[in-house]
Amino acid sequence: MISLKPDQIQPVAQNTNTNDGKIRDAKTREDSSRREFLKGSAAALALAPGMTLFAYGEAGAKPAAQAVTNKSRWGLLIDAAKFSDADVDACVKACQDENGWRDNGRPLTDAQWIRRVNLKNKKTEEKFSLPMMCQHCAEPPCVDVCPTGASFKRKDGIVLVDKHICIGCRYCMMACPYKARSFVHEHVEDQKEHAPRGIGTVESCTMCVHLVDEGKQPACVKAAPRGGMVFGDLNDKSSKLAQLIKSVATQQVRADLNLDPGVRYRNI
Amino acid sequence: MAETYRQLREYNNSFNILLVLHVVVIAIGLGAAFYMEHNGHVVTGMNNQVVWGLPHVFAIFLIVSASGALNLASASSVFSKLAYKRFARLSAILAIALLIGGLVVLLLDLGRPDRLIIAMTYYNFKSIFAWNIILYTGFITIVGIYLWTMMDKTVARFNKVAGWGAFVWRIILTTGTGSIFGFLVAREAYDAAIMAPLFISASFVYGMAFTVWVLITMCQATGHRLLTRDVSTKLRELFIIFIAAMLYFTAVQHLTNLYAAEHIGVERYILWSGSVFTWLFWVGHVFIGALLPLMILMKPDFGSSRVGLTSASILMLLGGMAHIYVIVIGGQSYPLSLFPGMEVTSTFQDGVFGTYMPTLPELLLGLAGVSIAMFIVGFALKILPFLPSPVEEDQ
Ligand code: SF4
Ligand code: SF4
């Protein structure tokens, strides 16, 4: 169990969690000029007691050999035809277990990193369901609008929220076309050490970045029915994901918005 | 004589009572903000579908009004309308005060208001929101300098430049505020370039309404007459023009949306579905906020009387709140269209109209923003010569 006091910013000394460091390591950020700027402002922030600076320190950085690069772009292909309602729910459960968010019985305010969306084609009357989560857009509106830069895209395409500089303005939620983000409306307990959460900040699917960084698959992918979800590197032409996307008909949700989501669908 | 200003020295008790009342409202509002922050937004009506609630309505309303409150000052410095010069200082301090009131509400409604220092030191320059923070601080600074040039003879020669600066800045500021919505591509209610001119025209109405309201309150408090008949008539005429402009842009906004097929759903929802927004739009914004004041103002005598102007101003302010409420809450309540051509349901309010019922703490926080603005003005009038000196009864 971790020693995180729920909802609090962790003072530097208390947090020895390297996974955290990886996720938030400024080295992984795409915009290096912003990084320089942030580093500059860190000095000023040091004056404020209790303010966390470690996010930009080198302590939790990945070894150079594994540094996050733009060589890969992580993505998912979801085959709606392979999912029953129960299959989607299994994915949701797996994400909850992995990342520590849960149903508090308050559907309006509870966080949902991944959800089951039920669809009915108005013309054909055909019904089906699919899992919906952050689409990890290549051109993410949530990142563009975020005033502090808390919403950011890693070089490998994973879009995250830095919980330490999110001020909870919720502009990213207004901007996200996929309703992928949740605001933490109440105190949270029993956080997972690799998925820090905090009242008053915004969160969304991290593509299980802590697992991906260890070379593993996201939790939902493992829970999905065989072939229901394929995780992989969109940039690697030899990956199963890239080959499938080349060979079968796939769709982007709201492709008209030109956000180039990393999550693709089949059989919608 | 027409250019002399006074510090507020003689006033009746009603002014003191008003100031105390504002302090009480502010204290209660701060308490409400603390309560919300302590428990989280779960104690508000906001949720994951309607993420901006009543505090945002108040904040945006105050910020939009702030820029409009500068009207009389701009009219005198930029457009050389000397009749308004007497009100320039009051108009400038009111603009600053309204902006501060709005910003306090915005800040206290953040999920993490304690991270103010982060909001001020970490900038993502791609974000229109971050730009707005710069626009707001810039506005306070420029209008502050402008006030200074009005009050200090040694820098008076810069008055015109500062006046222009403030005028240009306020137009950019309101454009920026409108653009907060204009940039939300996937929200169908907002996806329109018309947002910026709409906000500018609305700011003229609401800002002037605040100005007139404050002026008339001060007439009451000092027992003096501050508005000549001539000025009252001009204000009446200005209001008519501004209301007409706002109605025009509102009409253009909705008509262009109706023209675009993908926006018909949201227009139907707001304009004639019978939802709470339909009522707020037609009864609140259009009737109470525009038509009723127009009816009052169209009567030359009554429209320029103290009672006429006051009631018209209050109606415009109420209508203004309804207007911003429909834009902010109504626009969010309409579901995002993820899968066009499909019926969508989920446990996350996909495909349904988002519900939002404001709670008392949200209202209290919002009202505190108004009181903060009013208290700043009242206090400033007491310590500095901002108030126009009284005019003769029959002028
Ligand atoms: S789906 Fe939404 S939250 Fe995820 S990257 Fe795209 S805009 Fe951002
Ligand atoms: S809520 Fe947080 S992550 Fe979202 S835009 Fe605001 S500061 Fe950025």
Characterise the protein shown here:
The complex is a heterodimer of chains A (268) and B (395). By secondary structure, chain A is α+β, with helices and mostly antiparallel strands. Chain A contains eight helices and nine strands. Chain A has helices spanning 18-24, 32-45, 85-99, 141-145, 171-175, 209-212, 219-223, 240-247; strands at residues 74-79, 114-121, 127-133, 151-153, 159-161, 182-183, 202-203, 229-233, 263-266. Chain B has a two-stranded antiparallel ribbon. Chain B has helices at residues 13-39, 54-69, 71-77, 88-108, 116-121, 128-151, 159-182, 195-222, 229-259, 264-272, 276-298, 300-303, 306-333, 360-383; strands at 5-6, 342-346, 387-388. Classes of the chains: A alpha+beta (268), B mainly alpha (395). At the A-B interface, helix 2, strand 2, helix 4, helix 5 and strand 6 of A face helix 5, helix 6 and strand 2 of B. The structure holds iron/sulfur cluster (2 copies). One iron/sulfur cluster binds at residues 145-148, 150-151, 161, 166-172, 202 of chain A.
What are its keywords?
heterodimer, A: 268 residues, Alpha-Beta Plaits, two-stranded antiparallel ribbon, 24% helix, B: mainly alpha, Formate dehydrogenase/DMSO reductase fold, 14 helices, globular
| Number of distinct beta strands of chain A | 9
Q: What percent of residues of chain B adopt helix (DSSP H or I)?
A: 55-70%
Annotated CATH topology of chain A: Alpha-Beta Plaits
What is the strand tally of chain B?
A: 3
Quick take:
The complex is a heterodimer of chains A (268) and B (395). With 268 residues, chain A is of the alpha+beta class.
Write the layout of secondary structure elements.
The complex is a heterodimer of chains A (268) and B (395).
Chain A: H1 18-24, H2 32-45, E1 74-79, H3 85-99, E2 114-121, E3 127-133, H4 141-145, E4 151-153, E5 159-161, H5 171-175, E6 182-183, E7 202-203, H6 209-212, H7 219-223, E8 229-233, H8 240-247, E9 263-266
Parallel strand pairs in A: 1-9
Antiparallel strand pairs in A: 1-8, 2-3, 4-5, 6-7
Chain B: E1 5-6, H1 13-39, H2 54-69, H3 71-77, H4 88-108, H5 116-121, H6 128-151, H7 159-182, H8 195-222, H9 229-259, H10 264-272, H11 276-298, H12 300-303, H13 306-333, E2 342-346, H14 360-383, E3 387-388
Bound molecules: iron/sulfur cluster (2 copies).
